[in-house]
Amino acid sequence: MKTWRVLLITAPYHAGVVESAGRWPNLAFTYMAGELRAAGFEVEIYDAMTKGHTLEQVRLKVEETRPDIVATSAYTPAIYAAIGVMRVAKEARPQCITVVGGVHATFCYREILETSGDVVDYVVRGEGEVTLVELAQALRDGGGLSSVKGIAYRRDARVITNAARPFMPCVDKLRPAWDLVEWEDYTLFPLEGSRLAIVETSRGCPFDCSFCSQQKFWNRRWRARSPEAVVADMEHLAKRYGVDVVMFSDEYPTADRGRWETLLNLLIERDLGISILMETRVRDIVRDAAIMEKYRRAGVIHLYVGVESTNQSTLDLFKKNLECEESMQALRLINDAGIISECSFVFGLPEDSPQTVETTLALARYYSPDMPHFLLIAPWPYSDIYPQLKDYIVTSDYSKYNFVEPVTRSKYMSAEELQSAVIDCYRRYYRDKMLDFLNGPGGFKRDYMFNSMRAMMKNSFLAKHLGSMKDIPGVIDTSAPSVESNSNATINATVAATPEQVSGEKLRPGGRTQW
Fold first, then answer.
1. Rounded CA gap, 146 and 206, in Å?
2. Could you tell me what percent of the chain has a pLDDT over 90?
3. Which domains does the chain have, with CATH numbers?
4. How far is residue 240's CA from residue 231's CA, in Å, rounded to a whole number?
5. What was the pLDDT predicted at 490?
6. What is the DSSP string of 149-169?
7. How far out from the chain centre does Cα 450 lie?
8. Based on C-alpha coordinates, what's the Rg of the chain?
9. Is the pLDDT score of 501 beyond 50?
10. Residue 347 — φ and ψ, nearest 5°?
């Protein structure tokens, strides 16, 4: 019997958001590729987004590989790009079967199937590792589709929705195809020469933040991998593929305090030399005040917490189950631990005005995160907050639902005024923050921040809005040569400082920098 080929393609969508700090492999594709291969399929992962490829290059790739199945996934702003991939795949190889999955497809499958013509054959809803394999087997073997849970498709101009698939009981049993990843493509820009992997320690979140897609996708369930399995993955990635930076993909890795501390202890014991990027809840950082030193020793160098707002009424609207004072406390704990602190402040709500923007900026300065993001609300059509914002939405173009392009207005500000206010917040905040770093002591944080700002100005949406950011003291001329430190990372920022001010401290991954 002929071996079927499956081509997993990351849609080439670019908004200058997730790609501003680095290039990330698609972990879901790595898992699905491993499961497909175990079921007898020939699989290739093609990350067209990271490679910066066009749809024409995608077409050529399909012509070259001649797959039987082409699959992609998409979150909401990338859905048009994903459908574009399916379109060129059909044009290049009309007999191939096309499949779309991901968060947006899970909730908007009917819209996709009804509006994409003959471009999309099947939609995978929810967790895809088992569903895609069963679908591929049924298509290959000529079996019936009615027993394949978690899919939707069209028959006779009618959308068929099969029963939902239950979540897998144990994520540890998945077999990621790490060998199919083109590792040279993936790096964290602030650590030049680094090799970056995505690892998950858990799936889901039990909370119900009203703007969030993840709590709905995972049905507010949280499933943990064992700490031993997580560390085994990281050790394998470090030894076999030279990975020295790992981003935890979890929405909520710290939910179980005992399990989380066990994971930290194992990482400290193994001393893998891996730097860790992660996100978690504000309250867990406050809870873990006594063990923040373990975070750093385990390798955590960059930590995002979901602050979202400095206004309590907005936090309540978002169902954050959080007090403003806790956010401030968490950010200070992260900063005191020598970890890069990152958070976001969201604008675009009905009550936003020039005054509330100024108040938020003032309080953001008081909270003092290293890397705040000033974002514009993206009310996903399936989110809990959508009905409350529906009358303020100014565009239904999903490609703009990326947190940096305005899709809502407020009672007091137009969409354009909100975007201008956000850009102004970035300019004013980072002008002062980088001056603080320039005049402060040298070391890991300052070097990392200068690297990050340089990367941001080359790769993020801010580049077209802020130009060279010449009004930010001591920071960036992106056309200038890099200033190198005597380290495994390069200080990729041109600093207006005396040679004595430029740190020569070694920027060491894995949490071993001396402060």
1. 31
2. 60
3. 5-161 (3.40.50.280), 187-305 (3.30.750.210), 306-317+342-433 (no CATH), 440-515 (no CATH)
4. 14
5. 28
6. TTEEEEETTEEEEPPPPPPPS
7. 22
8. 23
9. no
10. -115, 170
Q: What is the pLDDT of residue 387?
A: 87
Burial track 400-437 (b if 16+ CB lie within 10 A, e otherwise): bbbbbbbbbbbeebebebbbebbbbbbebbbeebbeeb
- Integer CA distances (angstroms), 19 to 197, 222, 280, 341, 370, in order: 14, 27, 20, 19, 19
Helix axes 354-367, 415-439, angle to 10 degrees: 20
CA distance 505 to 444: 7
Phi/psi for 394 (5° steps) reads -110, -10
Q: Which of 168-182, 192-206, 258-272, 428-442 has the highest mean pLDDT?
A: 258-272
C-alpha atoms less than 13 angstroms from C-alpha of 335 in its C-beta half-sphere: 17
Q: How much is the pTM?
A: 0.86
Q: Could you give the CA distance from residue 83 to residue 399 in angstroms, rounded to a whole number?
A: 12
Name the pLDDT band for 455 (thresholds 50, 70, 90). confident
DSSP letter for each residue of 94-137: TTSEEEEESHHHHHHHHHHHHHSTTS--EEE-S--HHHHHHHHH
User: How far is it, in rounded angstroms, from Cα 475 to Cα 290?
Assistant: 35
Look at the chain and count its residues.
Answer: 515
Please report the sign of the dihedral spanned by the C-alpha atoms of residue 209, residue 210, residue 213, residue 216: positive
Look at residue 487 and tell me whether its pLDDT is greater than 80.
no
- Contact status, residue 114 vs residue 159, Cβ threshold 8 Å: yes
The confidence band for 488, taking pLDDT boundaries of 50, 70 and 90, is very low
Residue where the block lists tokens 């949280």: 222
**Digit-coded pLDDT (tens) for 54-95:** 999 999 999 999 999 999 998 889 999 999 999 999 999 999
Closest of 135, 166, 173, 167 to residue 153, by C-alpha: 135
Residue 471 Rama label (left phi>0; alpha psi -120 to 50; beta): alpha
**Phi, psi dihedrals of residue 166, rounded to the nearest 5°:** -65, 155
